[in-house]
Amino acid sequence: MSITLKDVEHVANLARLELSDAEKAQFTDQLNAILKYAEKLNELNTDEIEPTSHVLPITNVMRDDVRKESLPIEKVLLNAPDEEDGQIKVPAVLES
């Protein structure tokens, strides 16, 4: 598999990038070099290798979820930029 100039132009269009002809050629060469290097993995004999999701035998590294008291609302609101009716007030992000 190889990347063509047309592929680079298509991806650049999807990403809304304006690339010069030199950049398109450069990215085509670089992406093809990456794919060529990745194809070396196909040369490995993995018949005797068991599939794994992690290289180490880790089962669960998360701490126990322990319920504890929350901060009092007055203390939380001390750090809020603005407050209204006991809630943190932020600028609107959606237009109505």
How would you briefly describe this protein structure?
Helices cover 35% and strands 4% of the residues.
Describe what this molecule looks like in 3D.
- With 96 residues, the chain is mainly α.
- The protein has a domain at 5-43: Histone, subunit A, CATH 1.10.20.60.
- It is built from three helices and two strands, in the order αααββ.
- It has helices at residues 5-14, 21-39, 73-77; strands at residues 83-84, 87-88.
- The chain has a two-stranded antiparallel ribbon.
- Strand 1 and strand 2 (87-88) form a beta hairpin.
- Helix 1 (5-14) crosses helix 2.
- It is flat, with a radius of gyration of 26 Å.
- The model has no long low-confidence stretch (mean pLDDT 90).
Structural descriptors:
two-stranded antiparallel sheet; 96 residues; mainly alpha; Histone, subunit A
**CATH structural architecture of the domain at 5-43:** Orthogonal Bundle
Sequence of secondary-structure elements: HHHEE
Mean pLDDT: 90
Largest sheet: 2 strands, antiparallel
Tally of helical runs: 3
CATH fold description of the domain at 5-43: Histone, subunit A
Query: Cα distance, first to last residue?
Result: 48 Å
Can you tell me the residue ranges where pLDDT is under 50 for at least 5 consecutive residues?
none
Helix content: 25-40%
